């Protein structure tokens, strides 16, 4: 009997040991592969796992200039900060009608569209069509049309929606419905042009394809085919796309400019953790690179071929170019140095930032602190999806920590001094 008990105890101990070892070796890997910020492993914000596969290095070499003397203005004053939505938001856009500035946004959990005017604190619900768990909402130039992106049954759905008046009832007489058409399934990347009248999108397949069309999918035009799936696409200008490999600190990244006729121009390459942002005139690109155990932020003057180090560490996707001057950049900058396996750990939600908003002039080297978001709000804000109003009096962004929506009112002195 005692011997039998010993055998049972021994088996229990073995099971416990196996369970603990399995967690340590496999559970940890599963944790590191999770993406808490986006809730799944769909392409909505998931970091890339791209390896170069022999694409080669970019033509030419880049010289590194000596560090410039960066001028920071004294006596900064902070603009006003407003939290628009306490609930997670999938996307938002600023619209100006006459003298009225309006922000429309889509609630992530329900798919309902809301609207607020800048001059008031009132928020009005626009639609009553419920589509849960929208990962991304992209507006056209029309406040009443947008594209909703979400995952369903393992497939990525992209739905072009029009806000139209629905059937009136006692509870929905002032609400509208979302009606529209589906775009092709499994669009891995989608970007709206600055004018809001065209989309560029990447469709998975063998090969994968980049197409340009109207926002409703009409008049599609094939621009580029490639056997590689892992690309990020955005509009560098109205006639050119920025096409980049998905960034990881463990693999070399590449950045190209793609014309509407399919012409491909290599901009940068062979940099680990590469992610970049090209200005609208294509004369300059800011980019981050994983070096010496941390993130480094550079700018490349494409006309001279020279690059220099920026005065702060940041990922380019936390920046936006000025609408009025292609030599001015606005960025949400972390308060602490970025030491670690960037950009991967930020993409995966394993780290987050508390940001300040800065503007920077490439003509003068002047930086200007516009707002310390934590000081103003009492919250740690990791600002993403920055958008400027047409007159650059307003900055719209989401907090990556919880996807809440915010606006920052910019003062007349928000831009750095420009030499004319």
What would you say this structure looks like, in words?
The chain is built from 3 helices and 30 strands. With 420 residues, the chain is mostly beta strands. It has a single domain (65-409), classed as Methylamine Dehydrogenase, Chain H (7 Propeller), CATH 2.130.10. A 5-stranded mixed β-sheet has the order 1-23-22-21-20, with no helix packed on it. β16 (231-237) and β17 form a beta hairpin. It is globular. Mean pLDDT is 82; it is low at 3-9, 11-76 and 167-172.
What is the C-alpha radius of gyration, as a whole number of Å?
Answer: 24 Å
Structural class: mainly beta
Helical stretch tally: 3
- According to DSSP, the number of beta strands is 30
Mean pLDDT: 82
Query: Low-confidence parts, pLDDT < 50 over ≥5 residues?
Result: 3-9, 11-76, 167-172
As for the number of domains, it is 1
Distance between the termini: 95 Å
CATH topology name, in short, is Methylamine Dehydrogenase, Chain H
Reading side by side through the largest sheet, how are the strands ordered? 1-23-22-21-20
Biggest pleated sheet: 5 strands, mixed
CATH class wording: Mainly Beta
Helix content range: under 10%
CATH architectural label: 7 Propeller
The fraction of residues assigned to DSSP E strands is: 35-45%
């Amino acid at each position: 009997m005692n011997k039998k008990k010993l055998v049972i105890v021994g088996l229990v101990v073995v099971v416990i040991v196996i369970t603990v070892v399995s967690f340590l070796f496999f559970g940890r890997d599963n944790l590191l592969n999770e993406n808490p910020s986006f809730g799944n492993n769909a392409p909505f914000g998931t970091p890339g796992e791209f390896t170069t596969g022999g694409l080669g290095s970019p033509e030419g070499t880049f010289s590194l200039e000596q560090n410039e003397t960066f001028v920071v203005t004294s006596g900064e004053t902070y603009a006003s900060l407003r939290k628009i939505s306490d609930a997670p938001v999938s996307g938002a856009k600023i619209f100006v009608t006459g003298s009225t500035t309006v922000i429309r946004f889509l609630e992530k959990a329900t798919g309902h569209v809301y609207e607020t005017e800048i001059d008031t604190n009132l928020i009005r619900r626009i639609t009553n069509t419920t589509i849960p768990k929208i990962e991304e909402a992209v507006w056209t130039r029309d406040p009443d049309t947008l594209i909703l992106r979400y995952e369903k049954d393992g497939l990525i759905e992209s739905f072009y929606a029009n806000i139209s008046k629905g059937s009136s009832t006692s509870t929905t007489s002032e609400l509208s419905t979302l009606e529209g058409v589906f775009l092709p399934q499994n669009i891995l990347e989608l970007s709206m042009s600055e004018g809001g009248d065209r989309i560029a999108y990447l469709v998975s397949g063998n090969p994968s394809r980049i197409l340009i069309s109207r926002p409703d999918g009409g008049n599609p035009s094939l621009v580029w085919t490639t056997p590689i799936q892992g690309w990020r696409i955005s509009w560098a200008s109205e006639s050119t796309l920025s096409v980049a490999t998905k960034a990881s600190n463990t693999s070399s990244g590449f950045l190209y400019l793609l014309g509407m006729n399919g012409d491909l121009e290599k901009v940068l390459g062979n940099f680990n953790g590469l992610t970049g942002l090209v200005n609208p005139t294509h004369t300059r690109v800011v980019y981050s690179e994983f070096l010496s155990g941390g993130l480094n932020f550079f700018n490349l003057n494409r006309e001279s071929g020279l690059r220099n180090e920026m005065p702060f560490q940041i990922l380019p996707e936390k920046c936006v170019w000025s609408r009025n001057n292609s030599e001015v950049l606005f960025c949400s900058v972390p308060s602490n140095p970025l030491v670690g396996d960037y950009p991967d750990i930020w993409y995966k939600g394993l780290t987050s930032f508390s940001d300040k908003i800065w503007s920077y002039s490439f003509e003068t080297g002047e930086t200007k602190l516009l707002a310390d978001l934590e000081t103003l709000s009492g919250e740690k804000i990791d600002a993403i999806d920055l958008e400027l109003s047409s007159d650059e009096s307003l900055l719209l962004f989401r907090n990556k920590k919880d996807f809440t929506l915010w606006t920052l009112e910019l003062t007349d002195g928000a831009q750095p001094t420009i030499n004319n």
